[in-house]
Every structure is written in structure tokens, then in C-alpha cells.
Amino acid sequence: MRILTVGMLAGIGLWSLAAQGPAPKVSSVRLYVFDLGRLKSGNPQPLLDRGVTTTDMSVAAYLIVHPRGTLMWDTGVIPDELIQPGGTTEARATVQKTLRGQLAEIGYKPGDITYLALSHNHYDHSANANEFAGATWLVNKAERDVMFPETPPKNVNANAARFSALKSSKTKLLDGDYDVFGDGTVVIIATPGHTPGHQSLFVKLAKTGPIVLSGDLYHYPSERTLKDFAPFGNLGNPATEVASKAKMEALLKDKQAKLWIQHDIIADAELKKSPAFYE
Predict the structure, then answer these.
(1) Is 59 within 8 Å of 119 (Cβ atoms)?
(2) Residues whose CB is less than 8 angstroms from the CB of residue 106 and which lie 6 or more positions away in sequence, other chains included
(3) For the segment 7-52, what is each residue's pLDDT rounded down to a tens digit?
(4) According to the model, what pLDDT value does residue 5 have?
């Protein structure tokens, strides 16, 4: 009999022990939302000054299941192997559940995933990226160039080890928007600015309707309503980000889609979490 130690349970995630066998076949698109913790604002005062009273942010990852394959969108803020029973805090992030455990609960393991796409390379979206190095990585060329520069940068990215395995992944370099499964239901939307190759994700669901996962194009709903409010605009190219936001607003209007701001902790709390799903 194999005995699981506490440390092993932490790595697997206790909830994964209730996995229900192989993942089901689907006839239409499903979207699973994984709870990967919360992130405290590093500089809440500018937010409070603009009336944003809830400054903590949610962290999530998403699995899109299509009849032709699966897409993992973002991978969290703390690597699974560091998550302990009762939760783990690292810097400003606190995580209770592993991504691997939540995948196992619905019948998947990282090696089953067809495609990986990160909204961008920042640490709170890419912590478990190495787990999905066996998938085909869908990435804008400008983002990959930042993640794996030909010339070593003066300021080394402290997070680089957490996505290093992607360097040798099967990779499809994107230049603009990309229809993942070729039928218009899952489309990566190029929204550069926050990072050079930042991207968002359009998902057309038969019952729920069309939605867009924001990545970090927006962090708080107030960014859509308050003039010149871009609390993280200094991280990238502000002018390019403004253009990407205009593109996004036009897309939302044209497709009559809902925007899910990935870091909006208030809205995220209302979403169904895996093993429940949207379809």
C-alpha cells in the first residue's frame, strides 16, 4: 500500500484525491475557473485616492475544453510544489489550492493539455508554466523575446526559472489575433501595452454567451469608468495600452461580450469555481 505523507498531499492537493476518473468528452466549449489565491496591492494609496476601496486582487487560471482539445490560460502566482496544507504566502500572494490538484479533480493532468497560453509573463500569471511545457505554447513573438532574450538583460527576471521550460516547448509564434481551434469560439486577442506581447482571450459559450478574459489589460473595473486611470500603466507602454483598451471596448460591443477582469476579486468571488463549469 502506498502511504501519502503530508508533504506529498500538499504537492498533489488534497482535493485531487477525489478525482472522478478521465475527463469527459465534450460536444461544446466548457470553461473552468481555478482559484489560485489572492494578491495584495503593492501600492494601495493611489487606488484609495480614486475611490477603489477593495485593493486586493484575485488570482485565477482557466481551462477551456473544446471538442478539438484543451487550452490552459494562465498558471497562477505560486508554484504548486510550494503550496503547503493550510495555504502558503509568498511576498504579497497567498494561495490555498494547487493548480494540479484542481485539474485532477476534473480528470486532467498537465500532460493532457493541448495548448498553453499566458496572458503575459508576469509572476502572478506564470508560476506553474513549466508544468505545461509538453503543451503547444501559443505566444506573441514580442512576449517570447522578452521572456527569452538573445542578449542577457541587465536586470535579470527573478521569475524566469518558473517558465524556463517553455523555451524548448513546441511553440506557435503569434502576430496579432489567433483563432485557437479554427471555429471562432476561442480566440486569443492581441492587447499589447502592459507587456510587449500581452494578450486577452475571447471565449464563445453556447449557454453563458461570449466572454473575454482580460489578462492584465484591466485590473479593476474603475479603469473602464474613470478617465486616465491606469494604476499599472508605468509597467509597460501606456500609449499602446490605450490603443489595446480601445480595441477591447470595440470588441466587447461588437460581440456583445462580458469582460471578466481576472484580478477583480469582487467579481471573481461570484464566479463558479471548478469542478463546476460554464458552457
Answers:
(1) no
(2) 19, 20, 23, 32, 63, 274, 275, 277
(3) 443 444 433 344 456 777 899 999 999 999 999 998 899 899 989 9
(4) 37
| pLDDT category of residue 121 using cuts at 50, 70 and 90 | very high
Instruction: Compute the distance between CA of residue 165 and CA of residue 168 in angstroms, rounded to an integer.
Output: 6
| Alpha carbons within 13 A on the beta-carbon side of 8 | 5
Contact, 38 vs 265, CB < 8 A? yes
Q: Which of helix, strand or coil describes residue 142?
A: helix
Is-contact 244 198, C-beta < 8 A? Answer: yes
Length of the chain (residues): 279
CB-CB neighbours of 236 under 10 Å: 19
Provide mean pLDDT across the span 198-221: 97
Strand partners, 201: 188, 213
Question: With contact defined as beta carbons under 8 Å apart, do 260 and 214 qualify?
Answer: yes
